What does this fold into?
Amino acid sequence: MSKRYKSLLEKIDNTKQYTVADAATMMDTLKSAKFDETIEIAMNLNVDPRHADQMVRGAIVLPNGTGKTVRVAVFAKGVKADEAKAAGADIVGTDDLVADIKAGILNFDVVVAAPDCMGLVGQIGRILGPKGLMPNPKTGTVTPDVATAVKNVKGGQVTFRVDKKGNIHAGIGKASFATDKIAENITAFVVAINKQKPASAKGRYITNAALSLTMSPSIKFDLSELADIK
It folds into this structure.
């Protein structure tokens, strides 16, 4: 363990569960890298994703964005392609985009698709799926309104999906963000998670939650407060 990491650990009270406001304040205290670190939230949910009715998945446009530049590829044709370009899409195509992806050219972070192009996208599902890039209606990336989808992604949309063990991870901002902006983003993300609580999920829904920077130890959230954020 490095001296830098040890010094950061000394700033954290491991006996404490931090409120959203306190956690946001701590991000400035834990800054130590020479770059603008990402603020990362990690949660464990009391769900069993093996059951379809307990799969927690969705998207949220954070009020203050993520601080990250996102490259968006859009599968659309005709008027929809023009709308995507006007909205700021970095790449727009159909068969040509499929060919590029099959050739290993994946110079984008998010894929959006108009419904009438999903047949094309299906051809490269085995490539996009494992990389978490497959468009999905639940995250707003399969939609006839491709322009809004592009604007949302560019404007700070975060997608989330619980893994096999009930974990969710997401980047929700940058260390350079003002404390109130960090708190607003945390709150918005928690609201989105709570809205997705399956009706079949029993007991405490969020069983563990922590916040950290790219290069910092994590701090634990007050779970009672998170449960009340609706």
About this structure: The chain has a mean pLDDT of 95. Strands lie at 38-45, 57-61, 72-75, 91-93, 110-113, 157-161, 167-174, 206-213, 219-220.
